[in-house]
Input
Amino acid sequence: MAVDRRPEFRVLFLWAAGLLLGLSVPVTPAAAQSSATDTIGFEIEVEPAFFLDLVSEGGNILVSPMVPDRPASDAMRVVVRTNRGQPYRILHTLEEPLRGPDGRRIDPGAFLFSASDGLHGGRSRVPHPVPLKSGRSVVFLSNRRGDADEFLLTYTAPGRSVIASGRYRGRVEVEWELQ
Amino acid sequence: MRRLRIGAWGLAVVLGIGLAGPAAAAVTLRVAPVEGGRDMDFGLARSLNPQGEPTGDRVTRQVRLTITSSDPGRYQVFQSAGGRWTDLQGEEFPLDAVKFFVAEANGRGIVRFPNPTPLTLGEREIFLSEPSGGDRELLVTYTVQVPAGQRAGRYRMNMTYRVVAQ
Output
């Protein structure tokens, strides 16, 4: 006897369709989610700063005594503290040339100055003593990163010139400039 | 036969829902800096003091995370520093110069970082709710110790917060 199995197939189909429908029924409202995310920015600004300190005994350069054939020298430490991160250079200017009590100027060749290399990669532009002349000149270049550094400016009287006795005074200015 | 079909549909739908498992709790998250604004602005800080000595400022800011959960169920809260903290030139502000800790207003749930901890890259779970879930408010406190001599610049990064219902 032939058996018609179509109704059972239909029931199975309906079971499967119903199962899929059940699986797809949303169980939470459409707007609800099981996770949530939010992003914000974090910002901080570090203030740029540049400090140049000249450190010397008593705040002055004292090259003394200047005696014929006996060199005398004194040094000043130049300390640069910066966070700018840009290369810089240090300039040196003889603002007031050395003058004696009677106003007489000293021979520029009688007084020399030089700069050392820096402790942190900066390079001197006057590694060997040169006459201390009027005018502005670059004496030091920082490293490429513009790091803080320190170096010495040394002033020397070689004692080769004959200079009238007395106390001579002058004034130098040291300044910085970003490159 | 018709009754049989209807019964089959109904049973299958019920069974389908059952197989889908329990629903995850629906959660929402709102993130707002306590000091106002959309972003966490630590402001202008110094890495050299007025005498030129390398000493960094210390700055503290807070962010409030407001979590709502419409259904009972446990959830986790994550914090993720999305990348390095850098300026436009690519100079880096060290992440471990930032310490954070988390507090929960009602003292409920598990706070993962109750004490100041250095920030690191990547995602970290900062809070685990009770099994029953519920609305919560977390306060995350960040303290930045500017490294002495830190390069000048405006540093920026993104911080992402994520709530996941289990």
